[in-house]
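Entry type: protein chain
Record version: 2
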Amino acid sequence: MKNLEGLRALWETARSVIPISAFLLLFQILILKKPIENVKDFVLGFLLSVLGLHFFLKGVSISLIPLGDSVGKNLIYLDHRWIIIVFAFVLGYFATLVEPGLKALALEVEEISIGAIPNKVLIQTVAIGFGGGMALGIFKILNNIPNTKIIMPILFIILILVYFAPDEFVAIAMDSASSTTGPVNIPLNMAVAIGLSKIIENSDPLLNGFGIVGLTSLGAVISVLTLGILAKF
């Protein structure tokens, strides 16, 4: 029975990968009129993608999400709230460092800029901004602050920074924000935020627990724009 459930779950994962793979394959052959250069590598890569995604999702569901939820629920027992906020920053910072999407983006930026923007500098900058956004999000939950009172000032700050930052950094900032919302940050940080919100009195997890990912992304935008302004000098 368990084997049947496992195969069913594996098939569900394969069903999510098959459409995009089939679309690209048919577009390459029928529209672009180009053959697949190495069929064996393509098939192997497809199988590895399905297996990798399946095991990752399974691992997240039985480890990261429950752990994050448990940590979030127990944060409230710390004596000082500033410790919780520092914890949130450190969590967001280190979780961002391992995001594969951010690493890929940073390498592309370094290549296109001919080394003017080193990948390590960009990764560290984004991680600091993301950690700051995570800390701000947890601060919002602890104090039951409405989303609008947090988001509106941040958007105003971003508009000012966009005006002064070089155009290339504005584009990089937008992409950096989206690259942080990957397979590590989203399940872990959301689980912590929702777990904390569940345990706080008069806190609605639907209103306070969600939105944390958006705040962390805005933090990354601010940090990259700030880096661009500093780079001008």
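Comment: The mean pLDDT is 84.
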